[in-house]
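Question: Hello, beginner here. Any chance you could explain the protein record under this note? Any guidance would be welcome.
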Amino acid sequence: MNVKEYIQSGIVESYVLGLATDAERQEFERMCVDYPEITAARDSFERSLEEQLLQDAVVPPAFLKERIFETLKPSVKEDGFQQKLEETPVRRMNVWKWIAAASLILLAGAAFWAYSTNEKYNDLSAKQAAIQEQLAQKNNELATMKADAQMLYKPGMKMVSLKGTQEAPQAYTTVYWDTTGASKDVYLMINNLPQPPSEKQYQLWALLDGQPIDLGVFDYDVREKRLLVRMKNVQNAQAFAITLERRGRPNQEKPEGQIYVVGNL
């Protein structure tokens, strides 16, 4: 029998706190008779619990002691004989079971607090990651817009203002056409266009001798991501216009919809 391992197994605490089974309790009491070390361990644990309880104890007021003694004094009958106090059997409460129950409640509360804190930490970490991702995306969009803005100051860049027609009098867009380069790049700034229905999208045209030249379609929400939208190149143009067309129509080389904005060079 290894007494040290038996003591360290937790049986002492279980016995004192009233958590041991009947078989464990009977075995422990037999072991206490045979091994003084086990008895000493039990007494030591009980003293440590008592000392801890006494440290947290609240001292009652002095008048409470006198009031209790007054209550316990034997009452006197009318005939003058003293009434005997009847002794009432008092059931001894197992304080260690209460301590064990309180400990379990505190342990459960601590576990719940740890779980809740961990959940909140994970939630905050996820939100922080999402915010960082959004911030990185916005920084990229801002860098793109800055690059687009620098392009406006490029020598030979022509600006054409497209004003709204009767279809959308308040509409207004700007075309930037690089006339110096060999590619003749075309950029569109969407200043103000009405939001179209989902089944339609806008299309930019260059006009040369009264004939439309397709410069590409674009979605309305692209204005939230880019300052300038790069369209198809064109070598020659006399004017630019934007129409509202059916999304996904087979022949995009000819306009079908109404003109919303138009501007001449």
